[in-house]
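Review session, final week

We close the course with one last complete record, chosen because it touches almost every idea we covered. It is Amino acid transporter transmembrane domain-containing protein, a protein from Arabis alpina with 530 residues. Go through it on your own first, then we will talk.
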Amino acid sequence: MVESERSSFENENENENENENETEVIKTVFVCFFSYKRYQLLMSSEKQAEEAIVVSGEGEDDVAGRKMEDSTADDAAGDGFSMKSFLWHGGSAWDAWFSCASNQVAQVLLTLPYSFSQLGMLSGILLQIFYGIMGSWTAYLISVLYVEYRARMEKQEAKSFKNHVIQWFEVLDGLLGPYWKAAGLAFNCTFLLFGSVIQLIACASNIYYINDRLDKRTWTYIFGACCATTVFIPSFHNYRIWSFLGLGMTTYTAWYLTIASFLHGQAEGVTHSGPTKLVLYFTGATNILYTFGGHAVTVEVMHAMWKPRKFKSIYLMATLYVFTLTLPSASAVYWAFGDQLLNHSNAFSLLPKTRFRDAAVILMLIHQFITFGFACTPLYFVWEKAIGMHHTRSIFRRAIVRLPVVVPIWFLAIIFPFFGPINSAVGALLVSFTVYIIPALAHMLTYRTASARRNAAEKPPFFISSWAGVYVINAFVVVWVLVLGFGFGGWASMTNFIRQIDTFGLFAKCYQCKPPHPLPSPVTGDHHRR
Protein backbone atom coordinates (compact mmCIF):
# COMPACT_ATOMS: atom_id res chain seq x y z
CA MET A 1 0.00 0.00 0.00
CA VAL A 2 2.75 2.35 0.96
CA GLU A 3 4.69 1.43 -2.15
CA SER A 4 1.69 2.10 -4.39
CA GLU A 5 1.16 5.51 -2.81
CA ARG A 6 4.84 6.32 -3.23
CA SER A 7 4.68 5.22 -6.85
CA SER A 8 1.60 7.34 -7.39
CA PHE A 9 3.31 10.33 -5.80
CA GLU A 10 6.40 9.90 -7.94
CA ASN A 11 4.25 9.71 -11.07
CA GLU A 12 2.51 12.93 -10.11
CA ASN A 13 5.88 14.63 -9.58
CA GLU A 14 7.08 13.43 -12.95
CA ASN A 15 3.91 14.73 -14.60
CA GLU A 16 4.33 18.08 -12.90
CA ASN A 17 7.96 18.25 -14.00
CA GLU A 18 6.96 17.40 -17.56
CA ASN A 19 4.26 20.10 -17.50
CA GLU A 20 6.75 22.60 -16.14
CA ASN A 21 9.24 21.67 -18.88
CA GLU A 22 6.57 22.02 -21.56
CA THR A 23 5.60 25.42 -20.14
CA GLU A 24 9.24 26.55 -20.20
CA VAL A 25 9.63 25.38 -23.81
CA ILE A 26 6.47 27.23 -24.86
CA LYS A 27 7.64 30.36 -23.05
CA THR A 28 11.04 30.14 -24.73
CA VAL A 29 9.41 29.72 -28.18
CA PHE A 30 7.15 32.70 -27.61
CA VAL A 31 10.06 34.83 -26.36
CA CYS A 32 12.16 33.89 -29.38
CA PHE A 33 9.27 34.53 -31.76
CA PHE A 34 8.46 37.98 -30.37
CA SER A 35 12.15 38.87 -30.15
CA TYR A 36 12.53 37.97 -33.84
CA LYS A 37 9.48 40.04 -34.78
CA ARG A 38 10.79 42.96 -32.77
CA TYR A 39 14.15 42.64 -34.54
CA GLN A 40 12.39 42.60 -37.92
CA LEU A 41 10.38 45.69 -37.00
CA LEU A 42 13.51 47.48 -35.82
CA MET A 43 15.43 46.62 -39.00
CA SER A 44 12.48 47.68 -41.13
CA SER A 45 12.25 51.06 -39.42
CA GLU A 46 16.02 51.55 -39.77
CA LYS A 47 15.83 50.65 -43.44
CA GLN A 48 12.99 53.12 -44.00
CA ALA A 49 14.94 55.80 -42.22
CA GLU A 50 17.99 55.03 -44.35
CA GLU A 51 15.90 55.22 -47.52
CA ALA A 52 14.45 58.54 -46.39
CA ILE A 53 17.93 59.96 -45.80
CA VAL A 54 20.10 58.32 -48.46
CA VAL A 55 17.92 56.92 -51.22
CA SER A 56 15.48 59.79 -51.22
CA GLY A 57 18.27 62.26 -50.80
CA GLU A 58 16.45 63.88 -47.89
CA GLY A 59 18.15 64.46 -44.60
CA GLU A 60 16.40 64.50 -41.27
CA ASP A 61 16.28 68.27 -41.43
CA ASP A 62 14.63 68.10 -44.85
CA VAL A 63 12.01 65.64 -43.68
CA ALA A 64 11.30 67.80 -40.66
CA GLY A 65 11.22 70.87 -42.87
CA ARG A 66 8.76 69.26 -45.25
CA LYS A 67 6.55 68.11 -42.39
CA MET A 68 6.67 71.60 -40.98
CA GLU A 69 5.55 72.99 -44.34
CA ASP A 70 2.72 70.49 -44.51
CA SER A 71 1.61 71.33 -41.00
CA THR A 72 1.11 74.95 -42.00
CA ALA A 73 -1.50 73.97 -44.57
CA ASP A 74 -5.03 74.17 -43.32
CA ASP A 75 -6.05 70.65 -44.18
CA ALA A 76 -2.74 68.96 -44.57
CA ALA A 77 -1.93 66.05 -42.51
CA GLY A 78 -2.16 62.56 -41.59
CA ASP A 79 -3.44 60.02 -44.01
CA GLY A 80 -6.56 61.96 -44.88
CA PHE A 81 -7.12 63.42 -48.34
CA SER A 82 -6.27 67.11 -48.61
CA MET A 83 -7.36 68.97 -51.74
CA LYS A 84 -4.91 71.75 -50.98
CA SER A 85 -1.97 69.35 -50.79
CA PHE A 86 -3.23 67.47 -53.85
CA LEU A 87 -3.23 70.62 -56.00
CA TRP A 88 -0.45 72.63 -54.38
CA HIS A 89 2.20 70.40 -52.83
CA GLY A 90 3.86 67.99 -55.27
CA GLY A 91 7.00 65.90 -55.00
CA SER A 92 6.34 62.58 -56.71
CA ALA A 93 8.04 61.18 -59.80
CA TRP A 94 4.92 62.07 -61.80
CA ASP A 95 5.16 65.67 -60.64
CA ALA A 96 8.76 65.79 -61.85
CA TRP A 97 7.76 64.25 -65.19
CA PHE A 98 5.03 66.81 -65.75
CA SER A 99 7.41 69.60 -64.75
CA CYS A 100 10.10 68.45 -67.19
CA ALA A 101 7.77 67.83 -70.11
CA SER A 102 5.84 71.04 -69.54
CA ASN A 103 8.96 73.16 -69.18
CA GLN A 104 10.81 71.57 -72.10
CA VAL A 105 8.35 72.52 -74.83
CA ALA A 106 6.65 75.89 -74.50
CA GLN A 107 6.89 78.77 -76.99
CA VAL A 108 9.65 76.89 -78.85
CA LEU A 109 6.87 74.71 -80.27
CA LEU A 110 5.88 77.72 -82.39
CA THR A 111 9.42 78.38 -83.67
CA LEU A 112 10.38 74.82 -84.66
CA PRO A 113 8.65 75.11 -88.09
CA TYR A 114 10.79 78.23 -88.63
CA SER A 115 13.86 76.10 -87.81
CA PHE A 116 12.70 73.41 -90.25
CA SER A 117 12.56 76.02 -93.02
CA GLN A 118 16.21 76.82 -92.27
CA LEU A 119 17.34 73.19 -91.93
CA GLY A 120 15.12 71.25 -94.30
CA MET A 121 12.78 68.42 -93.32
CA LEU A 122 15.34 65.61 -92.92
CA SER A 123 17.88 67.62 -90.89
CA GLY A 124 15.11 69.04 -88.73
CA ILE A 125 13.83 65.59 -87.75
CA LEU A 126 17.27 64.05 -87.21
CA LEU A 127 18.57 66.96 -85.13
CA GLN A 128 15.48 66.87 -82.90
CA ILE A 129 16.09 63.20 -82.12
CA PHE A 130 19.85 63.70 -81.71
CA TYR A 131 19.64 66.71 -79.38
CA GLY A 132 16.75 65.15 -77.48
CA ILE A 133 18.90 62.13 -76.62
CA MET A 134 21.93 64.31 -75.84
CA GLY A 135 19.85 66.56 -73.59
CA SER A 136 18.50 63.53 -71.73
CA TRP A 137 22.07 62.30 -71.16
CA THR A 138 23.29 65.59 -69.67
CA ALA A 139 20.14 65.82 -67.53
CA TYR A 140 21.08 62.37 -66.21
CA LEU A 141 24.59 63.65 -65.43
CA ILE A 142 23.17 66.59 -63.49
CA SER A 143 20.96 64.25 -61.47
CA VAL A 144 23.95 62.00 -60.65
CA LEU A 145 26.02 64.98 -59.49
CA TYR A 146 23.14 66.20 -57.32
CA VAL A 147 22.85 62.79 -55.62
CA GLU A 148 26.63 62.69 -55.13
CA TYR A 149 26.61 66.15 -53.55
CA ARG A 150 23.74 65.27 -51.21
CA ALA A 151 25.37 61.99 -50.21
CA ARG A 152 28.65 63.72 -49.33
CA MET A 153 26.94 66.50 -47.43
CA GLU A 154 24.78 64.08 -45.47
CA LYS A 155 27.81 61.94 -44.64
CA GLN A 156 29.77 64.92 -43.37
CA GLU A 157 26.72 66.30 -41.52
CA ALA A 158 28.10 69.69 -42.41
CA LYS A 159 25.07 71.07 -44.15
CA SER A 160 21.46 71.56 -43.14
CA PHE A 161 18.96 71.76 -45.98
CA LYS A 162 16.00 72.75 -43.89
CA ASN A 163 14.12 75.44 -45.83
CA HIS A 164 17.04 75.56 -48.26
CA VAL A 165 16.68 74.76 -51.97
CA ILE A 166 19.85 73.29 -53.46
CA GLN A 167 20.84 74.80 -56.81
CA TRP A 168 23.21 73.81 -59.58
CA PHE A 169 25.95 76.27 -58.67
CA GLU A 170 25.95 74.94 -55.09
CA VAL A 171 26.41 71.39 -56.38
CA LEU A 172 29.38 72.56 -58.46
CA ASP A 173 30.80 74.40 -55.46
CA GLY A 174 30.51 71.38 -53.18
CA LEU A 175 32.06 68.97 -55.69
CA LEU A 176 34.60 71.07 -57.61
CA GLY A 177 35.19 74.35 -55.77
CA PRO A 178 34.48 78.10 -56.04
CA TYR A 179 35.65 78.62 -59.64
CA TRP A 180 33.13 76.10 -60.92
CA LYS A 181 30.53 77.68 -58.71
CA ALA A 182 31.17 81.05 -60.35
CA ALA A 183 30.96 79.57 -63.85
CA GLY A 184 27.75 77.69 -63.07
CA LEU A 185 26.17 80.73 -61.43
CA ALA A 186 27.05 83.06 -64.33
CA PHE A 187 25.88 80.80 -67.16
CA ASN A 188 22.83 79.41 -65.38
CA CYS A 189 21.48 82.75 -64.20
CA THR A 190 22.08 84.44 -67.57
CA PHE A 191 20.37 81.58 -69.39
CA LEU A 192 17.37 81.63 -67.06
CA LEU A 193 17.20 85.42 -67.34
CA PHE A 194 16.96 85.27 -71.14
CA GLY A 195 14.73 82.21 -70.94
CA SER A 196 12.26 84.35 -69.00
CA VAL A 197 12.71 87.16 -71.54
CA ILE A 198 11.83 84.76 -74.36
CA GLN A 199 8.60 83.70 -72.63
CA LEU A 200 7.58 87.33 -72.23
CA ILE A 201 8.34 88.08 -75.90
CA ALA A 202 6.32 85.01 -76.90
CA CYS A 203 3.30 86.23 -74.89
CA ALA A 204 3.25 89.52 -76.78
CA SER A 205 3.83 87.80 -80.12
CA ASN A 206 0.97 85.34 -79.61
CA ILE A 207 -1.69 87.68 -78.27
CA TYR A 208 -1.14 89.95 -81.27
CA TYR A 209 -2.74 87.30 -83.50
CA ILE A 210 -5.97 87.60 -81.52
CA ASN A 211 -5.97 91.35 -80.90
CA ASP A 212 -3.80 93.48 -83.18
CA ARG A 213 -5.27 96.79 -82.03
CA LEU A 214 -2.32 97.04 -79.65
CA ASP A 215 1.25 96.65 -80.86
CA LYS A 216 3.52 93.93 -79.50
CA ARG A 217 5.53 96.30 -77.32
CA THR A 218 2.36 97.40 -75.50
CA TRP A 219 1.40 93.76 -75.00
CA THR A 220 4.87 93.17 -73.53
CA TYR A 221 4.19 95.85 -70.91
CA ILE A 222 0.89 94.19 -70.02
CA PHE A 223 2.19 90.63 -69.81
CA GLY A 224 5.25 91.73 -67.89
CA ALA A 225 2.93 92.88 -65.13
CA CYS A 226 0.94 89.62 -65.33
CA CYS A 227 4.01 87.39 -65.17
CA ALA A 228 5.30 89.31 -62.15
CA THR A 229 2.62 87.51 -60.10
CA THR A 230 4.82 84.36 -60.21
CA VAL A 231 6.68 85.84 -57.23
CA PHE A 232 3.90 84.40 -55.06
CA ILE A 233 4.69 80.75 -55.99
CA PRO A 234 7.16 79.61 -53.30
CA SER A 235 8.99 76.71 -54.99
CA PHE A 236 8.74 73.88 -57.51
CA HIS A 237 6.74 71.88 -54.95
CA ASN A 238 3.88 74.22 -55.71
CA TYR A 239 3.78 73.79 -59.51
CA ARG A 240 1.91 70.48 -59.36
CA ILE A 241 -1.40 71.57 -60.92
CA TRP A 242 0.30 74.18 -63.14
CA SER A 243 2.64 71.61 -64.71
CA PHE A 244 -0.25 69.27 -65.41
CA LEU A 245 -2.34 72.01 -67.01
CA GLY A 246 0.64 73.42 -68.92
CA LEU A 247 1.41 70.11 -70.58
CA GLY A 248 -2.23 69.66 -71.53
CA MET A 249 -2.26 73.11 -73.12
CA THR A 250 0.92 72.42 -75.10
CA THR A 251 -0.46 69.08 -76.26
CA TYR A 252 -3.58 70.79 -77.62
CA THR A 253 -1.51 73.43 -79.40
CA ALA A 254 0.84 70.89 -80.99
CA TRP A 255 -1.96 68.81 -82.39
CA TYR A 256 -3.86 71.90 -83.49
CA LEU A 257 -0.81 72.95 -85.54
CA THR A 258 -0.57 69.46 -87.04
CA ILE A 259 -4.25 69.03 -87.94
CA ALA A 260 -4.78 72.63 -89.06
CA SER A 261 -1.77 72.43 -91.40
CA PHE A 262 -3.01 69.24 -93.04
CA LEU A 263 -6.54 70.64 -93.38
CA HIS A 264 -5.15 73.85 -94.89
CA GLY A 265 -3.06 71.91 -97.37
CA GLN A 266 0.02 73.17 -99.09
CA ALA A 267 0.04 76.89 -99.85
CA GLU A 268 -0.06 77.91 -103.49
CA GLY A 269 3.39 77.76 -105.04
CA VAL A 270 4.95 76.38 -101.86
CA THR A 271 8.66 75.57 -102.02
CA HIS A 272 10.92 73.64 -99.65
CA SER A 273 14.40 74.83 -100.55
CA GLY A 274 16.14 74.54 -97.17
CA PRO A 275 18.93 74.31 -96.35
CA THR A 276 20.29 77.06 -98.60
CA LYS A 277 22.84 78.90 -96.45
CA LEU A 278 25.18 77.80 -93.69
CA VAL A 279 24.18 80.73 -91.51
CA LEU A 280 20.53 79.68 -91.68
CA TYR A 281 21.36 76.01 -91.17
CA PHE A 282 23.31 76.54 -87.96
CA THR A 283 20.78 79.10 -86.73
CA GLY A 284 18.04 76.47 -87.01
CA ALA A 285 20.27 73.83 -85.41
CA THR A 286 20.96 75.98 -82.35
CA ASN A 287 17.23 76.61 -81.90
CA ILE A 288 16.77 72.84 -81.62
CA LEU A 289 19.77 72.73 -79.26
CA TYR A 290 17.86 75.29 -77.18
CA THR A 291 14.64 73.26 -77.39
CA PHE A 292 16.12 70.20 -75.67
CA GLY A 293 18.32 72.18 -73.29
CA GLY A 294 15.55 73.19 -70.93
CA HIS A 295 17.05 71.32 -67.97
CA ALA A 296 18.69 74.34 -66.34
CA VAL A 297 16.15 73.83 -63.53
CA THR A 298 16.90 70.11 -63.09
CA VAL A 299 18.46 70.47 -59.65
CA GLU A 300 15.57 72.54 -58.31
CA VAL A 301 13.02 70.04 -59.67
CA MET A 302 14.98 67.15 -58.11
CA HIS A 303 15.19 68.91 -54.78
CA ALA A 304 11.40 69.28 -54.82
CA MET A 305 11.03 65.50 -55.16
CA TRP A 306 10.48 63.26 -52.18
CA LYS A 307 12.80 60.63 -53.72
CA PRO A 308 15.25 62.46 -56.00
CA ARG A 309 17.03 59.30 -57.15
CA LYS A 310 13.97 58.40 -59.19
CA PHE A 311 14.71 61.37 -61.44
CA LYS A 312 17.44 59.56 -63.43
CA SER A 313 15.18 58.41 -66.28
CA ILE A 314 12.40 60.97 -65.88
CA TYR A 315 13.88 63.54 -68.26
CA LEU A 316 14.28 60.88 -70.97
CA MET A 317 10.64 59.83 -70.53
CA ALA A 318 9.59 63.47 -70.77
CA THR A 319 11.66 63.90 -73.94
CA LEU A 320 10.04 60.88 -75.59
CA TYR A 321 6.63 62.42 -74.97
CA VAL A 322 7.82 65.78 -76.27
CA PHE A 323 8.84 64.08 -79.53
CA THR A 324 5.17 63.22 -80.08
CA LEU A 325 4.41 66.95 -79.99
CA THR A 326 7.34 68.57 -81.78
CA LEU A 327 7.99 66.19 -84.67
CA PRO A 328 4.43 66.03 -86.11
CA SER A 329 3.66 69.73 -85.62
CA ALA A 330 6.92 71.12 -87.03
CA SER A 331 6.85 68.71 -89.98
CA ALA A 332 3.21 69.45 -90.83
CA VAL A 333 3.54 73.24 -90.69
CA TYR A 334 6.73 73.16 -92.79
CA TRP A 335 5.05 70.83 -95.31
CA ALA A 336 2.13 73.25 -95.64
CA PHE A 337 3.98 76.58 -95.85
CA GLY A 338 7.58 75.80 -96.75
CA ASP A 339 9.87 78.76 -97.32
CA GLN A 340 7.24 81.27 -96.18
CA LEU A 341 8.31 80.36 -92.65
CA LEU A 342 11.69 82.02 -93.20
CA ASN A 343 9.94 85.36 -92.64
CA HIS A 344 7.39 84.10 -90.11
CA SER A 345 9.09 82.78 -86.98
CA ASN A 346 5.74 82.25 -85.22
CA ALA A 347 3.71 79.41 -86.74
CA PHE A 348 0.43 81.07 -85.69
CA SER A 349 1.03 83.90 -88.18
CA LEU A 350 0.42 81.69 -91.25
CA LEU A 351 -2.61 79.73 -90.06
CA PRO A 352 -6.08 81.17 -90.72
CA LYS A 353 -7.89 82.81 -87.84
CA THR A 354 -10.44 80.39 -86.38
CA ARG A 355 -11.83 79.71 -82.95
CA PHE A 356 -9.47 76.71 -82.69
CA ARG A 357 -6.46 78.91 -83.40
CA ASP A 358 -7.65 81.49 -80.86
CA ALA A 359 -8.07 78.71 -78.29
CA ALA A 360 -4.50 77.53 -79.00
CA VAL A 361 -3.19 81.09 -78.62
CA ILE A 362 -4.93 81.55 -75.27
CA LEU A 363 -3.72 78.19 -73.96
CA MET A 364 -0.16 78.98 -75.01
CA LEU A 365 -0.37 82.33 -73.24
CA ILE A 366 -1.31 80.58 -70.00
CA HIS A 367 1.42 78.03 -70.51
CA GLN A 368 4.01 80.73 -71.16
CA PHE A 369 3.00 82.33 -67.88
CA ILE A 370 3.72 78.97 -66.19
CA THR A 371 7.03 78.56 -68.02
CA PHE A 372 8.01 82.11 -67.09
CA GLY A 373 7.60 81.07 -63.46
CA PHE A 374 9.66 77.93 -64.06
CA ALA A 375 12.53 79.92 -65.52
CA CYS A 376 12.29 82.72 -62.97
CA THR A 377 11.95 80.68 -59.77
CA PRO A 378 15.66 79.67 -59.63
CA LEU A 379 16.53 83.35 -60.14
CA TYR A 380 14.26 84.21 -57.23
CA PHE A 381 16.15 81.67 -55.07
CA VAL A 382 19.54 83.11 -56.02
CA TRP A 383 18.36 86.64 -55.23
CA GLU A 384 16.85 85.56 -51.90
CA LYS A 385 20.12 83.89 -50.88
CA ALA A 386 22.11 86.96 -51.94
CA ILE A 387 20.10 89.28 -49.68
CA GLY A 388 19.61 86.78 -46.83
CA MET A 389 15.86 86.21 -47.28
CA HIS A 390 15.86 82.63 -48.55
CA HIS A 391 14.86 81.05 -45.23
CA THR A 392 11.99 83.46 -44.62
CA ARG A 393 8.75 81.47 -44.34
CA SER A 394 6.42 84.37 -45.14
CA ILE A 395 5.22 84.11 -48.75
CA PHE A 396 4.39 87.82 -48.92
CA ARG A 397 7.80 88.96 -47.68
CA ARG A 398 9.52 86.71 -50.19
CA ALA A 399 7.23 87.96 -52.98
CA ILE A 400 8.15 91.57 -52.25
CA VAL A 401 11.90 90.93 -52.29
CA ARG A 402 11.56 88.92 -55.53
CA LEU A 403 10.00 91.75 -57.53
CA PRO A 404 13.33 93.41 -58.52
CA VAL A 405 14.22 90.23 -60.47
CA VAL A 406 11.31 90.80 -62.87
CA VAL A 407 12.32 94.37 -63.81
CA PRO A 408 15.42 93.58 -65.94
CA ILE A 409 13.52 90.75 -67.66
CA TRP A 410 10.75 93.18 -68.58
CA PHE A 411 13.28 95.70 -69.88
CA LEU A 412 15.24 93.18 -71.99
CA ALA A 413 12.03 91.87 -73.58
CA ILE A 414 11.28 95.40 -74.77
CA ILE A 415 14.83 95.94 -76.11
CA PHE A 416 15.11 92.62 -78.01
CA PRO A 417 11.61 91.59 -79.19
CA PHE A 418 13.01 89.23 -81.83
CA PHE A 419 10.84 86.16 -81.36
CA GLY A 420 12.69 83.20 -82.94
CA PRO A 421 16.20 84.57 -83.57
CA ILE A 422 16.74 85.24 -79.86
CA ASN A 423 16.13 81.52 -79.16
CA SER A 424 19.04 80.55 -81.38
CA ALA A 425 21.36 83.16 -79.85
CA VAL A 426 20.55 82.00 -76.32
CA GLY A 427 20.94 78.38 -77.39
CA ALA A 428 24.39 78.88 -78.87
CA LEU A 429 25.92 81.20 -76.29
CA LEU A 430 24.30 80.06 -73.05
CA VAL A 431 22.52 76.70 -73.34
CA SER A 432 25.59 75.10 -74.92
CA PHE A 433 27.59 75.70 -71.73
CA THR A 434 24.87 75.64 -69.08
CA VAL A 435 23.27 72.29 -69.81
CA TYR A 436 25.72 70.47 -72.10
CA ILE A 437 29.40 71.37 -71.67
CA ILE A 438 29.56 72.20 -67.94
CA PRO A 439 27.63 69.10 -66.72
CA ALA A 440 29.74 66.77 -68.89
CA LEU A 441 33.03 68.32 -67.75
CA ALA A 442 31.89 68.44 -64.12
CA HIS A 443 30.99 64.75 -64.19
CA MET A 444 34.39 63.84 -65.67
CA LEU A 445 36.29 65.85 -63.07
CA THR A 446 34.19 64.70 -60.11
CA TYR A 447 34.98 61.03 -60.83
CA ARG A 448 38.52 61.49 -62.16
CA THR A 449 40.12 59.51 -59.30
CA ALA A 450 39.80 55.78 -58.64
CA SER A 451 38.59 56.39 -55.07
CA ALA A 452 35.85 58.75 -56.28
CA ARG A 453 34.64 56.17 -58.79
CA ARG A 454 34.79 53.39 -56.20
CA ASN A 455 32.77 55.37 -53.64
CA ALA A 456 30.39 56.98 -56.16
CA ALA A 457 26.81 57.32 -54.96
CA GLU A 458 25.69 56.36 -58.48
CA LYS A 459 27.46 53.85 -60.72
CA PRO A 460 27.41 54.04 -64.55
CA PRO A 461 24.03 53.17 -66.07
CA PHE A 462 23.27 49.56 -66.99
CA PHE A 463 23.69 50.11 -70.74
CA ILE A 464 27.31 51.31 -70.34
CA SER A 465 29.73 48.65 -69.19
CA SER A 466 32.39 50.86 -67.60
CA TRP A 467 33.45 54.32 -66.52
CA ALA A 468 35.52 54.56 -69.69
CA GLY A 469 32.32 54.46 -71.73
CA VAL A 470 30.87 57.31 -69.69
CA TYR A 471 34.01 59.36 -70.27
CA VAL A 472 33.88 58.74 -74.04
CA ILE A 473 30.26 59.95 -74.25
CA ASN A 474 31.00 63.00 -72.09
CA ALA A 475 34.03 63.92 -74.22
CA PHE A 476 31.92 63.61 -77.38
CA VAL A 477 29.25 65.90 -75.93
CA VAL A 478 31.83 68.53 -74.97
CA VAL A 479 33.56 68.55 -78.36
CA TRP A 480 30.37 68.44 -80.43
CA VAL A 481 28.59 71.24 -78.59
CA LEU A 482 31.72 73.37 -78.27
CA VAL A 483 32.52 73.22 -82.00
CA LEU A 484 29.10 72.99 -83.66
CA GLY A 485 26.83 74.46 -80.98
CA PHE A 486 28.89 77.29 -79.56
CA GLY A 487 31.31 77.78 -82.48
CA PHE A 488 29.34 77.55 -85.72
CA GLY A 489 26.02 78.02 -83.95
CA GLY A 490 27.24 81.14 -82.16
CA TRP A 491 28.52 82.63 -85.42
CA ALA A 492 25.29 81.90 -87.30
CA SER A 493 22.84 82.92 -84.59
CA MET A 494 24.64 86.17 -83.79
CA THR A 495 24.85 87.02 -87.51
CA ASN A 496 21.10 86.51 -87.79
CA PHE A 497 20.44 88.37 -84.55
CA ILE A 498 22.45 91.40 -85.66
CA ARG A 499 20.57 91.34 -88.96
CA GLN A 500 17.28 91.60 -87.04
CA ILE A 501 18.63 94.61 -85.12
CA ASP A 502 19.70 96.27 -88.38
CA THR A 503 16.31 95.59 -89.98
CA PHE A 504 13.93 96.35 -87.11
CA GLY A 505 16.10 98.25 -84.62
CA LEU A 506 16.21 97.96 -80.85
CA PHE A 507 12.95 98.62 -78.99
CA ALA A 508 11.05 97.56 -82.15
CA LYS A 509 7.45 98.53 -81.65
CA CYS A 510 5.95 95.60 -83.54
CA TYR A 511 8.41 92.92 -84.69
CA GLN A 512 7.31 91.09 -87.89
CA CYS A 513 3.88 92.69 -87.79
CA LYS A 514 1.83 93.12 -90.91
CA PRO A 515 2.77 96.35 -92.69
CA PRO A 516 0.09 99.04 -92.41
CA HIS A 517 -2.18 99.48 -95.37
CA PRO A 518 -0.93 102.38 -97.55
CA LEU A 519 -3.01 105.50 -97.35
CA PRO A 520 -4.64 106.66 -100.58
CA SER A 521 -2.53 109.27 -102.32
CA PRO A 522 -3.86 112.78 -101.96
CA VAL A 523 -5.58 114.30 -104.96
CA THR A 524 -3.29 116.79 -106.63
CA GLY A 525 -4.35 120.02 -108.13
CA ASP A 526 -3.66 118.81 -111.68
CA HIS A 527 -5.69 115.69 -111.11
CA HIS A 528 -8.52 117.79 -109.69
CA ARG A 529 -8.52 119.97 -112.75
CA ARG A 530 -8.87 116.91 -114.92
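Two points worth writing down before the exam:
Residues 1-32 form one domain.
Residues 1-10, 29-34, 36-80, 516-530 have pLDDT under 50 and may be disordered.
Good luck, everyone.
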